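so i finally got all the pieces together for this one. its two components total, 912 residues if u count the protein bits. some of the lines might not be protein, just check the labels. i wanna see the whole assembly predicted at once instead of chain by chain like last time, that was a mess tbh
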Amino acid sequence: MVSDIKQVPESPVGKTGEGLAPQAPDPAGVQQVAPAQSVSPEHPDASPEQPDASPEQPAREARDLSWLLSRARIWTRRGLILVLRVSRLVAIGVRQIRPGLRFVWRSLLRRWRRSLEFRTVLTTLLLAVTSFAIVGAYLSNQIANNLFQERLAQAESESRFNVKQVQDTFDGAQVTDQSSVITLVYDTLTAVEGRGSVIQRRYVFEAAPEQTKPRNRWVESRASDQLTVRVIPPELRKAVQSGGKQQFWASTQFPVGNEDRPGIAVGNMVTFNGTAYELYLIYDLNTAQQTLDEIQNVLWAGGAALVLMIGAIAWYVTRNVVSPVSHAAVVSEKLAAGQLQERMVVKGEDEVARLGASFNHMAASLQEQITQLATLSQMQQRFVSDVSHELRTPLTTVRMAAEVLFDARDDFDPMNKRSAELLYHQVERFQSLLSDLLEISRFDAGAAVLDAEPQDIFQVISHVMEGAAPVAAEYGSEVRLNARQKSIIVEMDSRRIDRILRNLLLNALEHGEGKPVHISVAANHEAVAVSVRDHGIGMTQAEAARVFDRFWRADPARARTTGGSGLGLSIAAEDTKLHNGWLQAWGRKGAGSNFRLTLPLRQGGTIVKSPLQLEPADIGFPGAASEGQMLVLGQDSGDTPQPTPSAGVKPAPDDGGTGEEP
Amino acid sequence: MEVPWGRHAVRRAQRDKDLVIREYISMKARILVVDDDEALAEMIGIVLRNDGFEPVFCADGGQALEVFRSSKPDLVLLDLMLPGSDGIEVCRQIRGESDVPIVMLTAKSDTSDVVRGLESGADDYVPKPFKPAELVARVRARLRPGDQKAPETLRIADVTIDVAGHLVTRGGERISLTPLEFDLLVALARKPWQVFTRELLLEQVWGYRHAADTRLVNVHVQRLRSKIERDPEAPEVVLTVRGVGYKAGS
């Protein structure tokens, strides 16, 4: 935009008067050939629409057009060459510094996205440049117009005076011989140039064409130094030739020394010795052009400075507004990271200060709440620990006493014997309930810690199976292990995994109705899964969703045969959660249930997919005996019978699984 | 996977051995019970007496060391939460002047407490609430005399073990170990080709038959290493077999 505008002063004035010519090109062109007002008394308000001017219009436009076209062609060619050269340079440059450019572009884009400050300053700068370019162009145009009009008015009035003088001199001349005629004409015309070293105006004196040439016409044409009639635009000549006594003007350019200068040509007709001559006085616009150039330079310099200042101001203002916001962002990040004592700096009473104050208020109440929660959690933890100790010591005594009595029950009478038995069993139950309660409140208090180390999960499983063997024998169920691998090392807290699996297995035996219980183990590269499948009474999908709830029982009326506390599966779920694993349940009425434990092989690892299906593919794992390794525990550990699926039971079509799978 | 039938045989042997031990213990082993809860202490006393032990009581941690010195017990039952002096401190004091077996009674089953107790020198622990049989089993296991005192010399790395003399030396320099640590080292050294799982060690060294806390093994291995290894961070005598357990160095 700037370069466009800058080109205006350089372009020749004659070229439709874009440089110094006023206003839009069209009316300008018309006005240029319009009769000068004061010289044409019959047209005091000469305007473009007047019939006098209209015949000249097409010719002038045609001239302008052809001239423009040739110039345009030259400039287009130059421009094209320039563009090609520049693009080749750019292409080479881009190839050389493309990675750098890409980096710069990316970082700019990132800044644009991430920095409000950067965005605001850049937008402000762009808007300022645009608006300044518009205003600058308008101002420059306006100033050029005024300068031109002023010079034009001066030129016209000077011309009128000079032409009148020339005409008077010619009219009053009493010379008849050739040499004195020539001398007279030359002297008169030289006088027009003005006195002094500076030429005030130049002239072109030319006999009008298409007239009968009188015998005594000795002067055909005459012009100032370096000038010929060709510097006069043909339109102007036509206007002058057909305009009679009127004065016309047009923009032109003429050579002075080695340069072309913009100028105004003012044309009149004078007669001498019966010959009509066209007399053109040419006024130099160079000084006006220089003035305009200077003004424009000042304008652009001022504009650039202004834009920079606006940018700086925008930066400063945005910084003032944004810095508290980014400060708030930093502080809130720190808060989120747990540095609860972080606060914003509050200065003054403005909106930013209010933001800071309310932010601090929020942070304070957050800190208070969190501290309160932490205190509560600590208190609960200590409470659990204290209760644990305070309750366990007397319970130990009671239990030992009960056992001593129980051991000696055969010496008692039947009533005391039964009492001793009841005491013994209920103390046992009380103790397991208490330990489960304490365990769960340890989870609630966040006091449970994972004590993980790499261990073979089969060790844990065989330990659990061994421990459950008496219970399995009691229920008459066989327990089968079904696995392809012989050893899977898992980073785990084996005490907790042992507890989970024991719980699942005892649960399966309890609800298995004496049918076989299958333990399947499989691993993929990220996780290991252990599923415990029974073929007993099963449960509905809704029940499966609730099995991990505390104190939940599928059938409240059901006898609490194994004396479970109702917290076993809840504790198992908490233990699993501590390992970042999944514990899920699937069930079907009459088809048994399946509990699947999935653990990451390494702590901190994530599970995407469990190696085992939650919903059993079919009931009874056919082929398990041939493909997997099998260990059978139970009343009949010697042989390994093929599992016998219950008749009429089909795999559940719907996934009744629930649990913590995200 | 290992089919643990072998363990039954081990148990049978153990049971037979226990009978022998019972006879041995019938010499009335003296047991110091350090517990501030009088009812529990009394109950423990009843149970111990019932099984042929001679209990001595101390209700205050501050006096525990004096009572220990005067009574010269064969084993100490120590409550971790004591008035006056912390059970852990008492444990450290006793361990400072004697290798007598110490079994902790603990109401806290938090890992950190148990580990702290074991690290301060206790050989074993019984979590409250415990069954009388459990307590007696733990006490017996700790009182069990060392295996046959046949003259036998074992070597792991640069450590020499004189089993009969209950002596561990490295380069002629004697290393002092508690009986439990000694048993642990001997168990590993007798079968240098075998990798011992923590459970197997619990069974062989501690005499556990059922579920037990493998942390016992971890803590004692650490303690043993700190005494016999040149650099406990890079063990040469007791090696860890990742995911399985421990074995003797070559």
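Residues 302 and 533 of chain A are 86 Å apart (CA to CA).
Chain A touches chain B at residues 385, 388-389, 392-397, 399-401, 403-404, 431, 442, 447, 449, 451, 453-456, 458-459, 462-463, 466-467, 481, 483, 486-487, 489, 494-495, 498, 629, 631 (CB under 8 Å).
anyway lmk what u think
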